[in-house]
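>> received
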Amino acid sequence: MKYDDASWHYDSTPEFEDDERWAVAAAHIGVYLKWCLLQGWAGELHTEDEADQNMVEQVISGNMTGAEFLIQQCDCQFTNEELNDEGNAFTSYYFADHYPEDLESVAREQILSAPESEYDFDALREIFDRQYGEWLAENPLVAPPRVSPAEVSPSPAETQSTSDHPTFNEAQTENAQKDKPWWKVW
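>> returned
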């Protein structure tokens, strides 16, 4: 399932040079993807080998933006392969129906006109955390309760368990239409 694609927004950024144009077209996706990676929701595609894990760590440590990760590691496309089951369960609920309004409430001036570094990530993270908390309260079986690593040291048997997350609807996303606002492309 494709949630978003920077190529859908590239034509909306003609005032920028090509590399910066891609960064601006990917910024609103990257800021959300960064939050997802900070949640520990990197998909298997990005955790299979050490090089991929290092790229995820670059985003987590702040040495790479989410937009840069999207462009370099995801071919500008934000799909279900970028996230694990928990990340996809929340994103399939949130990204198309709630994210556009939340993003606009904080970053109206930056959307498709500024790179990710100009977005107020702390304000967006607060919204994402609240939305996730509300969603999780209504969907308690989707994700296990979170505890800090200091609270629990799993036994070797526990670290080999398999995921029992429920599946989610993978509806097809239609291509963007030029006469719709930027958030209507989902």
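>> Residues 151-186 have pLDDT under 50 and may be disordered.
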